[in-house]
Amino acid sequence: MDIDEVKSLLQKYSVKPSKKAGQSFLKNDRIAKEIVDAAKLSSEDTVLEIGGGLGILTKWIARSGCSVKVVEIDPGLVAALKEILVDYKNVKIIEGDALKVNLPHCNKIVSNLPYSVSSEITFRILRDVQFEKAILMYQKEFANRLLAEPGSTNYSRLTIDFRYHADVERILDLSAQHFYPSPKVDSTVVGITRRKEGPFAADFDVFYYVIHGIYPYPNKHLRKALRIWFRNLGIEKIEGRALVERVSKVVSVNERLRGLGIDVLVKLSDTIGEMIEEGILPGPRGESK
Q1: Which class is domain 3-194?
Q2: Per residue in 93-127, pLDDT tens?
Q3: Which pairs with CB-CB distance under 8 Å and at least 24 residues apart come from 246-253?
């Protein structure tokens, strides 16, 4: 689609792109095909698309012969999709908020996600959808945080929360000029698969509890971050130091948080879990197990 066609369709269906929601429409058909090709679709697949927009990705998905389920929140875009995709009998359009509706069963996901809710939708599909592969487009800065490796400045709590569940690869970067309205940021398409190889924590609730307790301080050494967290939990200073020393027998507490990989954090979580079981630390629900 060229920019005039995009503008015409938006006007026809009374759709005003929301800057607040970071709503922009991909207008390069060649790139749309490249994104869909990365999913390696066949007629045996069932594909979920979140945010169908004007159907530029949807058409390429549907041409594979697979079953397509599109969740779209904007009534105007729902009307546009129904007309644009009228000849594709393998497409079902679901009107609703992807953060609230029951997401349909699928084995693959291909989406240009709304940037304003990228994090919420990503973790929802990781939690609620048993997909094999997802090809997702994000704001480049957000994608770089998902792709970050230990030791980099982009490595954060978000990275760890995400990478505990999934493996990720960069597919392609897109400049803002490929969208209308042109956003102020570039975009990145990534491929996501569920992480199958460990290590995994003995208790994920404890892992999440620990990560969210210490990673408000990503530039601090683990020793210092643990002391702050223990203090926030109401642990006396002397007792907190003793607990840090116990942790130091399992992992190095002299490393900065940004440098800790999932394997180290799993060991840390399991050690904290033992302390919770012993009743010397409160658990994730604010009380000892």
Answers
A1: alpha beta
A2: 999 999 999 999 999 999 999 888 999 999 999 99
A3: 246/271, 246/275, 247/222, 247/271, 247/272, 248/223, 251/222, 252/222, 253/221, 253/222, 253/223, 253/226
